[in-house]
Amino acid sequence: MSVQLGDIAPDFEADTTEGHIKFHDWLGDKWGILFSHPRDFTPVCTTELGYVARLKPEFDKRNVKVIGISIDPLDSHAKWADDITETQGTKVNFPIIADPDRKIAGLYGMIHPKHDEVYTVRTVFVIDPQKKIRLTITYPQTTGRNFDEIIRVVDSLQLTDGYKVATPVNWKSGDDVIIVNSVDDETAKKTFPKGFKTVKSYLRLTPDPRK
Ligand code: BEZ
Predict the structure, then answer these.
(1) Which of 113, 149, 198, 199 is placed for a possible disulfide with 203 were both Cys, Cβ 3.0 to 4.6 Å?
(2) Could you state, in order of their start, the residue ranges of all structural domains in the chain?
(3) Which of the four CATH numbers 3.30.70.100, 3.30.1020.10, 3.40.50.880, 2.30.30.140 does domain 163-206 have?
């Protein structure tokens, strides 16, 4: 089954390194990031988990809860977490789901059989407080993800949910943004008091409206 943008994130119950959870209840009213790992005790995953743990203050600032998943069992996750503390210099500070029967992997389309019949690919789902899927990314098993990029997308989503703007190529929080085309110039003058630059009638840039 594939999960698409705009779908409600499938709910599930699971055992995690921080106890049994019901996913939607665990998310509460926060944003969520669910990301899969092909398997425990693998080098790329080890570096990813360490990096995500170090990013915790950035996730907290954005009201985001993070949760990993792999199809290995809980006792394996626990031993692997010790290795991550030892090698990455940080404790894993978010839960990792054990999915040995691959139920959740199936629900979210994390197994791509032509890539690997048994283990998951590297997927990332960003879920908003209404439980809607807002971003899906799929990476091959041999490529570690760029979690700074995922934070950048969360910044864009949180900004564009609040204002009638979109974010341009390689945008970073604080950069100028694009006024969406459903807003006419007259309305834009009132809505964006710092003014805007018209590059083309369909491409109007304005400073970050939150500043
Ligand atoms: C890794 O995490 O290092 C990895 C996992 C599966 C295949 C290749 C690499």
Answers:
(1) 199
(2) 13-145, 163-206
(3) 3.30.1020.10
How confident is the model at residue 180, as a pLDDT?
A: 98
Cβ-defined contacts of 3-8 (< 8 Å, 24+): 3/107, 3/108, 3/109, 3/125, 3/133, 3/136, 4/133, 4/136, 5/133, 5/134, 5/135, 5/136, 6/132, 6/133, 7/132, 7/133, 8/131, 8/132, 8/133
39-55 pLDDT, tens per residue?
999 999 999 999 999 99
In the reported structure, the alpha carbon of residue 45 is separated from the centroid of ligand 1 by a whole-number distance in angstroms of 7
The CA distance from 136 to 184, in Å, is 31
Query: Which of 48, 141, 143, 145 maximizes ligand 1 atoms within 8 Å of its Cβ, making it the mutation to test the pocket?
Result: 141
Evaluate the CA torsion angle 188, 193, 198, 203 in order and state its sign. Answer: negative
Q: Which architecture characterizes domain 13-145 according to CATH?
A: 3-Layer(aba) Sandwich (3.40)
155 among known catalytic residues: no
> Taking 70 as the threshold, does the pLDDT of residue 1 lie above it?
no
Please state whether the predicted TM-score (pTM) of the whole model is above 0.85: yes
Query: 188 C-alpha to center of ligand 1: Å?
Result: 48
